[in-house]
Amino acid sequence: MSSIQQLKAQTEQGLRDLVDPRLSPEIIRVGLIGEIYTVMEPFVNLGVEERLGNLGVEVVRTISLRQWIEEHVFKNALGLYTQRSLRCSASGYLRGFVGGHGLESIAHSVDSAQRDLAGIIHIFPLSCMPEIIAQGILPQVSADKNIPILSLVVDEHAGETGFQTRLEAFVDLLQRRMRICH
After folding, report:
1. Sequence ranges of the domains in the chain
2. Which fold does the domain 28-181 belong to in CATH?
3. pTM of the entire structure?
4. For residue range 131-182, what is the model confidence (pLDDT) as tens digits?
């Protein structure tokens, strides 16, 4: 086999490994929940997705700008948007809408616990009352669903070193849980 054919075969195998996460069961998958702007804006969340990626963690966002616009602008204008599925997922923890993305955070944490995720990171701005309400409920979700949840508050005083340390400790916890369970 020529070196070009070997290179092509190695490249194809590498791409297959990247595309099929089941080939690497040791990869930790974490759900990211919280207030939409804080979840999506790397400057605000101190690059949480990149930091987790550097720690070998795959991040699964539970909210996207496309999804939010589709639901809140288009479907809402047509009278098609309801929070029924969110309320159903959050039932037992939250009775209804609390403003902001509080209901979504609880519903997405419950949904994430039922997926193949090792943990959940809840990230929100310091003064966001709906997320503070969600933060108070998440320990019960964590206990009921047996999934670790880390809440991270970000504001202009959030230090990168402390933030990184909390992420590393959370990833260490998830790795230990995976070793014990497997």
Report:
1. 28-181
2. Rossmann fold (3.40.50)
3. 0.80
4. 888 888 999 999 999 999 999 999 877 788 999 999 999 999 999 998 887 6
